[in-house]
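task queued by scheduler; priority normal; single chain, no ligands, no partner chains; default sampling; output format set to structure tokens
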Amino acid sequence: MFYIYIRLSIIVLNFFLKKMVKSSIFKILFFLATMLLVSQEQKILDDFNSIVNKDFTFIKRKYFESKPDSILSKFYANAYISKSKIELNYDELAKGYELMSYLYKNKIGLQYADSIIEMAEKLPRKDYLATGYLIKGNQFYLQRNFIASLDNYLKSHQLAKKANNQELIHSINHVMGLLKIRAGNYDQALELFIENYKYYSKLYSKENYDLEPYYLSSIFALSDAYRRVKKIDSTSFFNRIGFVKSSYNNNLKYKNIFTFNEGINQYAKKNYTATIDSLSKALPYLIKTNNKPHLEYVNSFLGKAYYKIGNEDIAIYHLKQVDEIFNTTNDLHPELRDSYEILISHFKKKGNKEKQLLYIEKLLKVDSVLLKNYKYLWGEINKNYDTSNLIDEKELIIKNLKNENNLSSRLILILTLLSLTAIIFWVLNSRKKKIYKQRFKELISSNINQNKENKQDNLIAIDPKSIGFSDEIVNNLLKSLADFEKSNDFTKSNITISRLAEKFNTNSRYLSKVINMYKKKNFNNYINDLRINFVIERLKNDKLFRNYTIKAISDEVGFGKAESFSKAFYKKTGIYPSFFIKQLNK
């Protein structure tokens, strides 16, 4: 395939050269250019054939050494795939597709993962299929689509366990540990990384180049996890080990990663000068390789370190870089959220309200992304991945009990009832959410202000004489109520019918009758409905108002207690205000 691309490029170039040939001199030049192209084509073909004849370890080493040079990396990945196809070696073909997939962070990368899945479905071994889903999960992870990433990891995990493929199981443990880190489950992630480090340490040697990336990655993950559980001396210990090991084959990627990781660790030790020194050393390589997730980290901690030593101008520059990267990736590790808090605080101190508001809006966007990604991750990791391991343990216990003839039918009944209860709860909860979402859509599509006008028009059609006192009194009260609604006086606290009647120069009996007949509700429901309508419209149109607590919103519109407000909101709309706000913020 790679040779075909080269050949097509030469044909196209020949075509354009021929169009330019108009004299004998040009003909001679064209002939020489053609000869040069042919010889160059033959050299590339010879090089390609020479590489294909090498062993897979050699080609993979060349692939890693050539990164981030995309042209050379593709050359070696194509050679790896071609050699696999020639030898009908499906294990290596899957690895070749994996190598090629990592050169892309788009649909093409996913296509290579799908190629493995398509190939695996035709073969009896389940670990090929597990590999395909693992690589597809990795591709989604690189694209920062953590929801799709986790779904594919869970599929891979189930298949790998069925096949009892320890290499795949530990690879999946690694990426699941990374997701647990993002979800804030640091202790659980540390356990996985310790297990992985022990596994790869037994297999690793200086000569085992094929295993080196997995081994170094396990050390980095372990050192990073120790930092997060505040065991910073352990972090420094493993950073030193990682740097030494990555120096054996001059692995620039991991030498810089361990340098950058120790810089962040020095920040935890409050050695801010050491932080700046280490991160500044790693920064050029990360820029060259366009490693945006690590660039976010480096800029965030450089900014925070400079801020600590009082160099605010450089600090703000680096913190703004974090925001620029977020704008391109729409992803930010929760640990870096405080970058925006510092920016907001800085511009507040400077009295720059425009910039302060700008970064408040940006932080709200960051929080919405974090809420969407990490709430899902936390739930799914615990529900599917950890529960899967717990189920395996449960099945093992049941099996042992069967072998010992001690299995209790009561235990089975309890487990069944618990499962049925959980299913019923899930169904009812899903149905309730569906109903809530439909009610939310109806609220969004309704125009409360228009409804007010329509109702006001309908008031004229009612006969005032049926109320039992003069139509002049009725009309005066209706006008007063209209002014009362228009001025939003209903948002004031401690409104009673007596006080309102006194304000309208009437008595509470007349006012109560008018509200009952014309508004079709009692006084309390009338006031509460006005307040709820007001809240709905303001939440729709005022983003900052959505950030208020329920208690603050309740006080804003005159309710005495947050509980009373929530009940009134639910009675009027069929959903709770917290759900309504969450849906608006999506």
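post-processing summary
- The chain has five domains: 8-47, 54-164, 292-399, 411-435, 448-584.
- The chain has 28 helices and no strands.
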